[in-house]
Design goal:
The protein is mainly α. The protein has 2 helices and no strands.
Protein backbone atom coordinates (compact mmCIF):
# COMPACT_ATOMS: atom_id res chain seq x y z
CA UNK A 1 0.00 0.00 0.00
CA UNK A 2 1.03 3.28 -0.91
CA UNK A 3 1.08 6.02 1.65
CA UNK A 4 0.01 8.54 -0.96
CA UNK A 5 -3.10 6.60 -1.87
CA UNK A 6 -4.02 6.19 1.80
CA UNK A 7 -3.45 9.86 2.41
CA UNK A 8 -5.62 10.82 -0.57
CA UNK A 9 -8.37 8.39 0.49
CA UNK A 10 -8.30 9.81 4.02
CA UNK A 11 -8.36 13.36 2.62
CA UNK A 12 -11.34 12.45 0.40
CA UNK A 13 -13.13 10.80 3.32
CA UNK A 14 -12.42 13.84 5.49
CA UNK A 15 -13.66 16.20 2.75
CA UNK A 16 -16.82 14.06 2.36
CA UNK A 17 -17.29 14.17 6.15
CA UNK A 18 -16.91 17.99 6.17
CA UNK A 19 -19.32 18.37 3.24
CA UNK A 20 -21.96 16.09 4.88
CA UNK A 21 -21.53 17.89 8.18
CA UNK A 22 -21.79 21.34 6.55
CA UNK A 23 -24.78 20.26 4.43
CA UNK A 24 -26.92 18.33 6.95
CA UNK A 25 -25.67 18.66 10.53
CA UNK A 26 -24.40 22.26 10.68
CA UNK A 27 -27.74 23.91 9.67
CA UNK A 28 -29.63 21.89 12.30
CA UNK A 29 -27.08 22.83 14.96
CA UNK A 30 -27.18 26.50 13.92
CA UNK A 31 -31.00 26.53 14.07
CA UNK A 32 -30.92 25.04 17.56
CA UNK A 33 -28.25 27.53 18.66
CA UNK A 34 -30.22 30.45 17.19
CA UNK A 35 -33.40 29.22 18.86
CA UNK A 36 -31.55 28.94 22.15
CA UNK A 37 -30.06 32.44 21.69
CA UNK A 38 -33.52 33.82 20.90
CA UNK A 39 -34.95 32.03 23.94
CA UNK A 40 -32.19 33.44 26.15
CA UNK A 41 -32.69 36.93 24.68
CA UNK A 42 -36.46 36.67 25.27
CA UNK A 43 -35.83 35.50 28.84
CA UNK A 44 -33.50 38.43 29.49
CA UNK A 45 -36.02 40.86 27.97
CA UNK A 46 -38.79 39.33 30.08
CA UNK A 47 -36.58 39.63 33.14
CA UNK A 48 -35.94 43.29 32.36
CA UNK A 49 -39.67 43.90 31.81
CA UNK A 50 -40.39 42.12 35.09
CA UNK A 51 -37.86 44.31 36.86
CA UNK A 52 -39.45 47.44 35.40
CA UNK A 53 -42.93 46.19 36.28
CA UNK A 54 -41.73 45.44 39.81
CA UNK A 55 -40.39 48.97 40.15
CA UNK A 56 -43.67 50.38 38.77
CA UNK A 57 -45.66 48.17 41.13
CA UNK A 58 -43.50 49.38 44.01
CA UNK A 59 -44.21 52.98 43.05
CA UNK A 60 -47.94 52.27 42.74
CA UNK A 61 -47.91 50.50 46.10
CA UNK A 62 -46.19 53.53 47.65
CA UNK A 63 -48.79 55.84 46.11
CA UNK A 64 -51.65 53.63 47.32
CA UNK A 65 -50.09 53.51 50.77
CA UNK A 66 -49.86 57.31 50.82
CA UNK A 67 -53.51 57.54 49.72
CA UNK A 68 -54.50 55.03 52.39
CA UNK A 69 -52.63 57.01 55.06
CA UNK A 70 -54.35 60.19 53.90
CA UNK A 71 -57.74 58.44 54.00
CA UNK A 72 -56.98 57.12 57.48
CA UNK A 73 -56.21 60.68 58.57
CA UNK A 74 -59.53 61.84 57.13
CA UNK A 75 -61.39 59.02 58.86
CA UNK A 76 -59.71 59.79 62.19
CA UNK A 77 -60.54 63.49 61.79
CA UNK A 78 -64.14 62.61 60.98
CA UNK A 79 -64.32 60.28 63.97
CA UNK A 80 -62.93 62.98 66.25
CA UNK A 81 -65.48 65.48 64.93
CA UNK A 82 -68.29 62.96 65.43
CA UNK A 83 -66.96 62.22 68.92
CA UNK A 84 -67.01 65.93 69.81
CA UNK A 85 -70.49 66.26 68.30
CA UNK A 86 -71.78 63.26 70.28
CA UNK A 87 -70.20 64.67 73.43
CA UNK A 88 -71.89 68.03 72.86
CA UNK A 89 -75.21 66.27 72.19
CA UNK A 90 -74.82 64.24 75.38
CA UNK A 91 -74.01 67.40 77.35
CA UNK A 92 -77.05 69.15 75.89
CA UNK A 93 -79.26 66.15 76.69
CA UNK A 94 -77.86 66.04 80.23
CA UNK A 95 -78.50 69.76 80.66
CA UNK A 96 -82.05 69.37 79.35
CA UNK A 97 -82.65 66.43 81.70
CA UNK A 98 -81.19 68.38 84.63
CA UNK A 99 -83.41 71.37 83.76
CA UNK A 100 -86.44 69.08 83.52
CA UNK A 101 -85.64 67.47 86.88
CA UNK A 102 -85.02 70.89 88.42
CA UNK A 103 -88.33 72.21 87.05
CA UNK A 104 -90.15 69.12 88.37
CA UNK A 105 -88.48 69.58 91.76
CA UNK A 106 -89.43 73.27 91.83
CA UNK A 107 -93.01 72.42 90.89
CA UNK A 108 -93.07 69.78 93.63
CA UNK A 109 -91.63 72.28 96.11
CA UNK A 110 -94.24 74.86 95.08
CA UNK A 111 -97.00 72.29 95.57
CA UNK A 112 -95.63 71.31 98.97
CA UNK A 113 -95.34 74.98 99.98
CA UNK A 114 -98.94 75.58 98.85
CA UNK A 115 -100.11 72.52 100.81
CA UNK A 116 -98.13 73.65 103.85
CA UNK A 117 -99.64 77.16 103.60
CA UNK A 118 -103.11 75.69 103.29
CA UNK A 119 -102.51 73.42 106.27
CA UNK A 120 -101.08 76.34 108.22
CA UNK A 121 -104.10 78.48 107.31
CA UNK A 122 -106.43 75.78 108.52
CA UNK A 123 -104.47 75.43 111.76
CA UNK A 124 -104.37 79.21 112.30
CA UNK A 125 -108.09 79.40 111.59
CA UNK A 126 -108.78 76.57 114.03
CA UNK A 127 -106.59 78.27 116.65
CA UNK A 128 -108.29 81.60 116.01
CA UNK A 129 -111.72 80.03 116.36
CA UNK A 130 -110.64 78.19 119.46
CA UNK A 131 -109.21 81.39 120.84
CA UNK A 132 -112.32 83.34 119.93
CA UNK A 133 -114.52 80.65 121.44
CA UNK A 134 -112.56 80.75 124.64
CA UNK A 135 -112.77 84.51 124.66
CA UNK A 136 -116.47 84.60 124.02
CA UNK A 137 -117.20 81.58 126.16
CA UNK A 138 -120.25 80.85 124.31
CA UNK A 139 -121.19 78.14 121.90
CA UNK A 140 -121.25 79.15 118.29
CA UNK A 141 -123.57 77.23 116.02
CA UNK A 142 -122.15 75.13 113.13
CA UNK A 143 -123.19 77.49 110.36
CA UNK A 144 -121.70 80.48 112.10
CA UNK A 145 -118.60 78.47 112.87
CA UNK A 146 -118.16 77.48 109.19
CA UNK A 147 -118.69 81.09 108.07
CA UNK A 148 -116.07 82.33 110.53
CA UNK A 149 -113.57 79.71 109.36
CA UNK A 150 -114.13 80.58 105.72
CA UNK A 151 -113.73 84.28 106.43
CA UNK A 152 -110.51 83.66 108.38
CA UNK A 153 -109.13 81.51 105.55
CA UNK A 154 -109.80 84.23 103.05
CA UNK A 155 -108.18 86.86 105.25
CA UNK A 156 -105.12 84.78 105.86
Amino acid sequence: MNINLTLIAQALAFALFIWLTAKFIWPVLMRKIEERQKQIADGLAAGERGKQELEAAGKRAGEELAKARERVGEIIGSAEKRDAQMLDEAKAAARAEADRILAAARADIDQQVARAKETLREQVAALAVAGAEKILRREVNAQTHADLLGQLKREI
